[in-house]
TrEMBL record:
The family this protein is said to belong to: Belongs to the flavoredoxin family.
SMART domains: Flavin_Reduct
Protein's recorded name: NADH-FMN oxidoreductase RutF, flavin reductase (DIM6/NTAB) family
Taxonomic lineage: Bacteria, Bacillati, Bacillota, Bacilli, Bacillales
Superkingdom of this protein's organism: Bacteria
Pfam families for this protein: Flavin_Reduct
Length: 201
């Protein structure tokens, strides 16, 4: 068995190892709004829920050449954002929004997605997503090492939107949702075999 010290690896090498070993990861498709009113959208797979009470989620957004990405900057300036769950139906368009655009251009408009009014936040949601988590900024942390930095965003969920066809007895029917997972490199994966295990008494 290989033993590897992360300090012996470059940022890219650590990234490649982590993203190919910590799998599968859910993909957060996040819409945010700039102070000038430009709607931004981008996917992030360093994402998960933190707590049910209060309902909190987290997303890590690495900086590029020391500069915050549009999503981080928008969330910190406006204080609101919407997380959409990526599924088999929208994954191609979600991936297309990862293109590099100037901050005054909207990825939503560029790839042909439809923005709609959210219920409790001012940032629009994306119609093509069947699960949407409207959030306000709860906390922001910065992790730095060398010339690398990451913005760690904690959001408080203030509203859930779920398609009626997915919502059953207070839960989401995962098989009908068909969520997509992020693997290493360019790889994604659909929902695989589902099984249940009872917790020991």
């Amino acid at each position: 068995m290989a033993i590897i010290d992360p300090k012996d690896l470059s940022k890219k090498e650590n990234y490649r190892f982590l993203t190919s070993s910590v799998t599968p990861r859910p993909v957060a498709f996040i819409s945010s709004m700039s102070e000038k009113g430009v709607l931004n959208a981008a996917p992030f797979s360093y994402f998960n829920v933190i707590s049910a009470q209060p309902p909190l989620l987290s997303v890590s957004i690495g900086r590029k050449n020391g500069q915050q990405k549009d999503t981080s900057r928008n969330i910190l300036q406006v204080g609101e954002f919407v997380v959409h769950i990526t599924d088999e139906e929208n994954v191609k368009q979600v991936n297309d929004t990862s293109m590099n655009l100037p901050s005054d251009q909207s990825e939503v408009e560029k790839v042909g997605l439809e923005p709609i009014v959210s219920s409790k936040v001012g940032v629009p949601s994306i119609k093509e997503s069947r699960i949407r988590l409207e959030c306000t900024l709860e906390k922001h942390l910065v992790f730095e090492e060398g010339d690398s930095a990451t913005d760690f965003i904690i959001g408080r969920i203030v509203s859930y939107y779920v398609d009626d066809q997915l919502y059953e007895d207070g839960t989401v029917n995962t098989k009908k949702l068909k969520p997509i997972a992020r693997l290493g490199g360019k790889q994604y994966a659909p929902l695989g075999k589902i099984f249940e295990l009872d917790r020991p008494e």
